[in-house]
Amino acid sequence: MKLTVEVLTPQTQIYSGEADEILVPTVSGQLGILPGHVALLTKIEPGELEIKNGGKSVYVAIMGGYLEVSKDKVNVLGDYAIRAENIEVIKVEQAKAKAEKLKAEKISIEDMTNIEADLRRSILELKVAQRRRSPRN
After folding, report:
1. Residue 115 in contact with residue 100, Cβ under 8 Å?
2. Rounded Cα distance, 83 and 92, in Å
3. Distance, CA of 118 to CA of 112 (rounded, Å)
4. Residue 60 in contact with residue 7, Cβ under 8 Å?
5. What is the DSSP letter of 82?
6. Radius of gyration for the chain, computed over Cα atoms and rounded to the nearest angstrom
7. Is 55 within 8 Å of 20 (Cβ atoms)?
């Protein structure tokens, strides 16, 4: 028996397919979902989402959102998400450096909030990319 998994953001579909298990960072800690899981709706924390299927895994950096489990259907509605293989490390490192530089300057609170959000996203993407990329990439 398999799970049917959809990972969506307001911009795009990140993953659609079957899975044996998914691991998701929630407000209560890391949560594992297997076929037959009870119905659930919970908030997702920024972190790494792992979708396991047939001995292979898909890794996704996710910045938060919601997880819904109903029967063997799992919907992940993310604020922002990107698959590990799609993370452009050089661009993320540049965005991180720019955000750190701007954070050091005197700017408005609104701008600071946006810069800090960009910095958190960049750090998360780098973390997932560095952990999940093969040595040849």
Report:
1. no
2. 14
3. 10
4. yes
5. E
6. 16
7. no
pLDDT in tens, 4-17: 999 999 999 999 99
Domain 3-84, CATH: 2.60.15.10
Residue carrying the six token digits 């919907």: 75
Residue type, 133: R
Q: Measuring CA to CA, which residue among 60, 85, 48 is closest to residue 7?
A: 60
| Greatest extent of the chain over all pairs of C-alpha atoms, in Å | 55
Q: Can you give the pLDDT at residue 119?
A: 77
Which residue type sits at 72? D
Report residues of the chain scoring pLDDT below 70: 106, 132-137
The model scores a pTM over 0.85: no
